[in-house]
Amino acid sequence: MADYYPLLARALEAMPDRSPALRKAVYERARSALISQLRSLDPPLSDADIDLEARALEAAIVRLEAERAPPEPIPEPAPVDSWQDLPESVPGAPEPEPLRIPPRAPEPFLPPAPPPDLGPTPLLPPEAPVAAPLIPIQARKGREETPFVDPADALLMPPEPAPSEPGADETTSEAGGGRQRPRIDVVAPPAGRSRLVRNIVVGAVLFTVIGLIAVAAFLLRDKPADLHPIAAEQPETAPSGAESKYADRIGGDPAAPLPRAPQPNVSTPSSAQPSTATPSAAPADLTVAQRAVFYEENTSAANAPPTVVQGRVQWRLETVNGERGQPLETVVRANADFPDAGITLTMTINRNRDTTLPASHTIELAFTTDGLAGGPKRAVQDIGLLQAKEEENARGSPVSGLPVRVRENLFLIGLSSLRNDIERNTDLLLHRNWLELAIKFNTGSRAIINLEKGTAGAQVMEKAFAQWQ
């Protein structure tokens, strides 16, 4: 289940007006886009998964609305029923007259009275001695006599210190009435560190899924047939330092270069489009196959050299249908094939037109893994960020974005929509001749795919970015 709170929060922050009506419109658009995009995935998701993602979106909306709700008014304190609250005087009342005390008259002098005659004093019987009780009464613990203290003096006396020993509480309870109350220990709540760590971990995982749900469905829709014919050209020879570069990346000694049979140049004339084609479609361009190299980690022995498989990649500029009445959109598509490794890659680069998604462009990566002859069938489980570099054996610079996993063999990379990141990503994709992608199979082995742009790829990229401006 994903958490859409970061995406919705960033979308609301980018809006100049955050009134409730506009926020509600953004929420409704996010709901409809999420449901339609999830149902358009191929293979389709189950109803339970779609309902789970919809509930996650609703939870994010409730959280955003709770944060933007006006604070509750502070209740006014109740009036105090006290003589101090009464006004000193009532408006309109007459001024009270000052109290006059009459002078005290002097008391008359009286002679002292004679003592009363009470008669002879009666004889009192002697007091009988107090008999000792048959059963001695022992003083109860803590039943010590307490000297009498005047209440007025008690207010001036400092409070007695609390007992520091465990037995002091018992003594006090017994002296107060002989019955001890049960003592309940208050357990202090745990520190917020575990909660903070949990929120960070869950937020990181859910933020990764955000790009999947929001960006993936935008790309995974019905695509028309290819509008451009394919022409193949003989790939160039691989540079000698490619194997050593891979050894530096994943370990192991460099492998010897493998011979590769030359492929004849094949060109196909451009075929006519059907009469029903939209006039706004881009003109057909011939595509030329460029070099592609697949380096796979060799786990058969320690420090074993990696396996190097040569392939080819074809760059095309295609036109696909827009979303809901939008005009045709231009995309860059690269098809890489490695027959000896049993894997193919289709990479599609498209401009993001959905304003609710914080991404300038999206890169879809779809793998097909047929497996090697006699070997187990495998699938791509994870990928890294796409990297751009000048030469095949150079270290690449990653693009600014976030890779997300849709399912096995299908991934998306959302490029950052910040201004500086857009300029940097555009420079990397336009002016670097090689693109590198690190992948990991479900068997645990790792591999690196290098794609050469060449002249054909550079022209396709330049035309696409010129139309995206």
Topology:
Layout: H1 5-13, H2 20-39, H3 47-68, H4 151-156, H5 166-177, H6 193-219, H7 242-250, E1 289-296, E2 307-320, E3 329-338, E4 343-351, E5 359-369, E6 380-383, E7 387-389, E8 397-398, E9 401-407, E10 410-416, H8 419-431, E11 434-441, E12 446-452, H9 454-468
Antiparallel strand pairs: 1-2, 1-12, 2-3, 3-4, 4-5, 5-10, 6-11, 7-8, 7-11, 9-10, 11-12
Notes on the structure:
This protein is of the alpha+beta class and 469 residues long. Among the domains are: 5-68, no CATH class; 224-257 and 282-468, no CATH class. It has nine helices and twelve strands. Strands 1, 2, 3, 4, 5, 6, 7, 8, 9, 10, 11 and 12 form a twelve-stranded antiparallel beta sheet that branches. Strand 2 (307-320) and strand 3 (329-338) form a beta hairpin. Helix 2 packs antiparallel against helix 3 and helix 8 (419-431) packs antiparallel against helix 9 (454-468).
Quick structural overview:
The protein has 9 helices and 12 strands. It is of the alpha+beta class and 469 residues long.
